[in-house]
Design goal:
There is one protein chain. This protein is of the alpha+beta class. The chain contains 23 helices and 16 strands. It binds zinc ion.
């Protein structure tokens, strides 16, 4: 959507030191700037910003990225929004606002219209709230002050089939249906939301993209949300994030609850770091957005069967995303309580005590696994291992996984090695070098790793690598392959800076590996780009001679008929000319 050339211009134009300094106090130390990391709690600075290389890296928690990535992580902005934000500070015109094809231009105008309509609808509902003593009474009855109602821009949709006609004289406009404000049924049009307290749903940039409406009395459905529209995609949006963002960062904690009323009530009682998903189960997008902002993520569910089911689903979504350094917890409230009723009945301190004591992801997982079977029998213990297997395979954080493997092994009465073997966890552990699947000359190690670090001297160096010469079993080789592919997609690979490289890779599975190689290069190796380019080519030469030594050795074995089938396959694969 955003052209590469624009991103490159933008990253050349902005200075990451300025961008980060807006939020973090930085001190110059040598070539870099350092400060307290905004992504984890620390007393001595391990957060480093390189003006020469235009990226940041935290030696404490591993956070890293360029200016775009910083805004995404720090402000919780989406990619496009982060680019827009940066472009605005750099005084650059976003290319998407240049008229492209007539259809595209029309679609964009349409979207602008839709935002304006939503904004106008919100203003209308807010004005109506002031005119409705019944709705005001309702909110007061729930302990909400005018200040909180204003902060969340709460409104009221009157009990009238076409109330919005007063805000939109052009009530027949198709756009009102497109926004989800008006329903069309058998040629008749009427307001979707009637006699409901209205909670605007805001995008990360603060634009109204949808509404949630709650009945005042006993009616059904209790909550009604906007449908999916061009502006509103349920699985991506988080209710209350705009209002909670700063508090989440300060508290280091984000709390995910189920309803907007919970978010607002918690904020009223001083728990400002709560947000809600919008009528959908927790998605990976929700989890990763929040983990970028907070040091700790707490899911809060009702204590009933439905709540436990929703919690289990959130756990499954979280397993691959859970980092080693940020705990995820699962809070279950007593039956018949929700966060709204609990905080009103027991107050902030009691609620926060429960949050502090909430079981962690590993405790919740182990508790559920243990509860499922009888550990007194060998059958029960082996059932535990097979039940645990799919979940453990999902966990990407090596430390967390190790801890849970140890706990499962202890419960099942087997050793850690036995547990890993039964659950087939060995070779998939992230970034650990896989056990060699074939006889490997010892000088195989290190060259790929070195190339991956040195390529940051000048990314286009990667194009000189003969990928067939790399050991295909190493993650570094796969990462180099991705870099080559990414460069091949650009028009001018020579001009790709190393800060840009990470951008080009997108959601690569090796992104972390590549970013830490980048940090190692610029902050650890201390070579000039020229020295590093020289080193890179030396390493390539070593790779070439390693390959020819291997080729000779294999060929000799094949000629003596002493090669294994595996060795023949390797020879075939690497050293025989490839067919058309
Ligand atoms: Zn950090």
């Amino acid at each position: 959507m955003i052209p590469e050339s624009f991103k490159q211009d933008l990253l050349n134009r902005v200075d990451i030191v300025d961008v980060v300094s807006r939020y973090v106090k930085l001190k110059k130390g040598g070539a870099n700037f350092t400060g307290l990391c905004p992504f984890h709690n620390e007393k001595s600075p391990s957060f480093s910003v390189s003006p020469a290389k235009q990226f940041y890296h935290c030696f404490g928690c591993g956070a890293h990225g360029n200016a775009i990535g910083f805004l995404m992580s720090y402000a919780g902005l989406g990619y496009v929004d982060a680019v827009k934000d940066l472009a605005a500070t750099a005084g650059m015109q976003m290319p998407e606002f240049r008229p492209a094809s007539p259809q595209e231009a029309a679609r964009r105008d349409r979207e602008t219209d839709l935002y304006a309509i939503m904004e106008r609808a919100m203003d209308f509902y807010r004005a109506e709230l002031k005119k409705s003593p019944r709705a005001i009474e309702y909110l007061k009855g729930r302990g909400l002050t005018g200040e909180i109602a204003a902060r969340f821009r709460i409104g009221y949709a009157p009990d009238d089939w076409q109330a919005l006609r007063r805000a939109f004289p052009e009530y027949e406009d198709r756009a009102l249906v497109e926004c989800g404000l008006v329903v069309e049924n058998e040629g008749k049009r009427y307001d979707r939301f009637r006699d409901r307290v209205m909670f605007p749903i805001l995008s990360a940039r603060g634009a109204v993209i949808g509404f949630g409406g709650r009945v005042l009395g006993p009616g059904e459905p209790k909550y009604l949300n906007s449908p999916e529209t061009p502006l509103f995609e349920k699985g991506r949006e988080i209710y209350g994030l705009v209002q909670a963002r700063d508090v989440i960062r300060k508290a280091g904690r984000a709390l995910v609850v189920e309803g907007y009323m919970d978010v607002v009530a918690l904020a009223q009682y001083g728990v400002g770091y709560a947000v809600a998903t919008l009528g959908t189960a927790t998605t990976a997008t929700h989890v990763s957005k929040l983990l970028r902002l907070a040091d700790e993520l707490v899911f809060c569910f009702d204590g009933d069967v439905a709540g436990r089911k929703a919690a289990w689903r959130a756990l499954e979504v979280s397993l691959p995303l859970a980092p080693d350094h940020k705990p995820i917890r699962f809070l279950f409230l007593p039956e018949d309580e929700d966060p709204d009723s609990y905080v009103r009945g027991h107050g902030k301190d009691a609620f926060e005590r429960r949050v502090d004591e909430a079981p962690t992801l590993s405790e919740f997982l182990l508790g559920e696994l243990r509860g499922a079977g009888d550990l007194g029998s060998p059958e029960g213990r082996s059932r535990l291992l097979s039940a645990a297997k799919p979940h453990l395979k999902q966990i990407a954080a090596p430390g967390l996984r190790l801890q849970i493997v140890k706990a499962v092994a202890a419960l099942a009465g087997v050793s850690q090695e036995e547990a890993e073997q039964i659950m087939e966890l060995r070779q998939a552990r992230s970034y650990a070098r896989p056990a060699p699947a074939r006889p490997q000359p010892s000088h195989h190690f290190g060259l790929e790793e070195r190339l991956l670090a040195l390529v940051f001297a000048k990314p286009s160096l990667a194009l000189e690598v003969d990928l067939d010469r790399l050991d295909p079993a190493l993650p570094e080789s796969k990462a180099l392959g991705e870099i080559v592919a990414a460069l091949a997609r650009t028009e001018r690979p020579d001009e790709v800076s190393d800060g840009m490289l990470i951008e080009l890779l997108g959601e690569s599975p090796h992104r972390d590996l590549i970013a830490s190689a980048q940090a190692r290069f610029w902050m650890g190796l201390k070579l000039s780009p020229e020295e590093a380019s020289g080193e890179f080519r030396d390493t390539l030469a070593k790779l070439g001679s390693r390959a020819s030594a291997e080729e000779k050795a294999l060929l000799a074995k094949i000629l003596k008929k002493s090669a294994t089938a595996e060795e023949e396959r390797i020879f075939q694969e690497r050293y025989m000319p490839k067919g058309p």
